[in-house]
Design brief:
The chain contains 8 helices and no strands. By secondary structure, the chain is an all-alpha fold.
């Protein structure tokens, strides 16, 4: 790859940063963590941009990095919580969080939060990021068949959670 073929990270940041933060926000449980995940993904891309053979693949690389960073963050949190016996203090959501989304959107998001991680990832990538099954499979490193089965199971579980009114504010933390 020549210097002319290099990825324009500044342009990539301007055009895709907000979209990647939204994606990460749906995968992790707060905006600050989502911003950290996206920042790490961009830093990783900066460190490895010489190895990126196709500048057209930069968005896919970035999306996969965001998904992987989100998974890593959730794994680290789960490990820390398993080893700490001290109760975590309850942190109130930001005052403007209720204004940002309509109540019905918040109910759906709370229901999505109750899904297993892989099902949540598939739904977020499919319906929020509007990715195809093949793109989701590539981003998550799984087969298209697994994407289909996880999406089907997730939709069934989501419908059940919503029907039972299980999308309450007391949903279990990830």
């Amino acid at each position: 790859m020549t210097a002319d073929d290099s990825v324009d990270l500044a342009e990539l940041y301007r055009t895709h940063h907000l979209q990647m933060v939204r994606l990460a926000r749906l995968l992790v449980d707060d905006l600050a963590s989502a911003e950290d995940v996206v920042q790490e993904a961009f830093l990783g891309m900066h460190r490895n941009r010489a190895a990126l053979r196709d500048s057209g693949a930069a968005v896919g690389y970035l999306r996969r990095a965001v998904v992987n960073q989100s998974r890593s963050m959730l794994r680290r949190r789960r490990t820390v919580r398993a080893h700490l016996k001290v109760a975590e203090p309850e942190i109130a959501p930001p005052a403007d969080s209720e204004v940002l989304l309509a109540e019905e959107h918040q109910q759906v998001l709370r229901a999505v939060d109750q899904l297993p991680p892989r099902q949540r990832e598939v739904l977020v990538l499919r319906y929020w990021s509007d990715m195809s099954e093949a793109e989701i499979a590539a981003a998550l490193g799984i087969s298209k068949g697994t994407v289909k089965s996880q999406a089907s199971r997730a939709m069934t579980a989501l419908a059940q959670i919503m029907a039972e009114g299980g999308a309450s504010d007391e949903s279990a933390p990830r």
